[in-house]
Amino acid sequence: MKTRISFSSVVWLFVGAVYFFVPLIATLLFSLKTGPNYSYSLSAWSQVIHDQEFWKTVKLSAILALESIVLSLGLLVPTAYWVHLKLPRVRTYVEFVTILPFVVPPIILTVGLLQLFNNDLHAPVWYLGQPYTFLVSAYVVLAFPYVYRSLDAGFRAIDVHTLTEAAQSLGASWRTTFFRVIIPNVRQAALSGAFLTLAIVMGEFTIASLALFNTFPVYINQVNQEQPYEAASLSLLSFLITWAAMAGLLLVGRPPRSGRRRFLIVPARQTR
Question: Is the model's pLDDT at 251 over the cut of 90?
Fold first, then answer.
């Protein structure tokens, strides 16, 4: 039976495509302009690609994104699992805490973190002076609402108690239960949180600028002040790099193809 596509669906699909692709096409045409006669060439793209600062900042932002993803998932996956399994009454309070990064602006968050680490905790210089430590701490806080809510939706979609009890009834330890039973069932939720974290880190400007770190968004802003055509090409490159990284994460997190599916078998109780 063939599925009929309604006219309104086609219209809304066309409107969405126009809304998405027209700004990208306009940015691409602007990045190809050069000279007083506005002729088209690849000079802006060539200048950006051969700039060593471009590769340096892209590498820095990519490492920061990877560290933020690993730290966020390492902290929040066990937390979400334990909240759903043992502390369901705390779920409301945890959800309230996840809203706080939305309420606090990034500029206030940065000033607060600098004040806390400098005056209250007296953090070492190597912590405050390195983007791999200070910026990752701030990015984990920014990504906390997105990662936790993605994981929360994933844990709500499965029966955590049944899976845990079934694994333990077969003799599995807590470690085996967590890594071989729970993690595979929330893989897609974890990937969604990783995608959002990657997008946040690759596009975050305020915290890196106030903390005086030259990340990729800060580099784009610097180029935009003097070189508008190169800035347009950088914006498109940022878009392509983010989507390529997301595609890479999706391929890495895809489960292996196999003809057989593994199920957790629970032995039935014998009745007397």
Answer: no
